[in-house]
Amino acid sequence: MKGYFGIGVEGVSKAMNVGTLFRTAHAFGASFVFTINAQYRRRDGGHADTSDTPGAVPTYHFASVEEFCLPQGCRLVGIEITDDAIELPSFRHPRQVAYVLGAEREGLSRSAQSLCDFVVRIPTRFSVNLGVAAAIIMYDRLISLGRFADRPVAAGGPEAPLPPPVFGEPVWKRRQRRKMRAAGESGL
Hints:
This protein is α/β, with parallel strands linked by helices and 188 residues long. The chain is built from six helices and seven strands. It has helices at residues 15-28, 42-45, 53-56, 110-115, 130-145, 171-185; strands at 4-10, 32-36, 59-62, 75-79, 86-87, 96-101, 118-121. One of its GO terms (biological process) is RNA processing. Pfam families: SpoU_methylase. It comes from Vineibacter terrae.
């Protein structure tokens, strides 16, 4: 899968929720994780983050939304239940993206939402746990951008595995070979 993703939280006060999110992000291959204005202590979050994500994945802590920054070209996607949010099954994930989820009770602040390129909602009847929401987002990214065989019409798995991708030689090598052949044909 091309591209990268990061995921983080804003205003969270429960270290176990952040730890769960970080561990899940690590499992799904996040390139970085972050907190914004969160009351997070690595030691407390480590009870849920048994993979020690901050020890393996770049981890950023921002004191406020105003201090928050992302790599150049990285899109920000907020996960929040709002009337104008895009429903997750209809959303195309950007290749270079950071996802941000809000606090347990208050959700994603207006100032954080204003930074977002997109706001996405998970189509549930009510809000789910922060770690669960993050896992759903990362899983949806994986299945929509990953290279998997199509689901069969009947119950069960696919009949045959997806063939491995075939890539040509690098363009510069093909040009070099053409030049060599042209030079050989012209008697040089």
